[in-house]
Amino acid sequence: MHEARRIAEQAALAAGRLIAERAGMTGLVRSKSTGTDLVTETDVQAGVLAALAILAADPGARFVIEEAEVFDLTEAVEGGLDAPAVWVIDPLDGTTSYVHGFPCFSVSIAYLNHGVPMAGAVYNVPLDQMASAHAGGGATVNGIPIQCTETDALAEALLITGFPYDRGALLDRQLAALARFLRAPVHGIRRDGSAAIDLVHVAMGRADGFWEFGLKPWDMAAGVLLCQEAGAAVSDISGAAWTPAATGVVAANPALHALMLDVIHADQ
Hints:
By secondary structure, the protein is an alpha/beta fold. The chain folds into two domains: about 5-140, Fructose-1,6-Bisphosphatase, subunit A, domain 1 (Fructose-1,6-Bisphosphatase, Chain A, domain 1, 2-Layer Sandwich), CATH 3.30.540; about 155-265, 3-Layer(aba) Sandwich (D-Maltodextrin-Binding Protein, domain 2), CATH 3.40.190.80. The protein is about 35% helix and about 25% strand. The protein has helices spanning about 5-20, 40-55, 70-75, 95-100, 170-185, 195-205, 215-230, 255-265, and strands spanning about 30, 40, 60-65, 75-80, 85-95, 105-115, 115-125, 130-135, 140, 145, 160, 190, 210-215, 235, 250. A hairpin with a 2-residue loop joins β9 and β10 (about 145). The protein starts with a helix and ends with a helix. The model has no long low-confidence stretch (mean pLDDT about 95).
């Protein structure tokens, strides 16, 4: 197996096991950017375990980590998203679901080279499913190869989305797009609270497409690679090539991806 992929899997599993052990014991819960953007002690502790696992295998590693406290609690060194090598970690994607006991949360870890995802893993904690990929090496879930669907009509598509923490103009834009998709019509739309898992759902064919506004690079980087390696087209919300600077994502098989962009931008 590709070395960075193996390291990502090991780090995601180390963090995921802690999260599973602490189910129902969130500890202190506080807000970050908004009152709905939550972080718990488990987020930080899982981040510490993930960083330590990577440092054990790659002592010179540089990191971008959602929870900044991890840098103070480890010897992890901050890196840049456009650096030649950087590990991007979301130690607990779906914190709100975790706090409420809703079974959809994950660990997402990606290895980037000059902003391009080269390896990544998303560990679905409640389902004990490890999705991973490396560039040119395909994508798997628990070692089994996966592929996106070939659905080429919105009327036959199951889509996934999410809602931004920004409950102002960005939410208005999302609600308008949501209404257009519902009236397209589509088979259905789901929302579960972990963008990393949502991207895996597309990669493994559980859903046909995913779009979301207001995301961060650690939400997307590993899942973007998984989708690409499973045959999906992935872009930012505008339709341009995805980069870590993107604040949103659209992922689906190539035919459906184009149709989804048409609906998202129908009001422009």
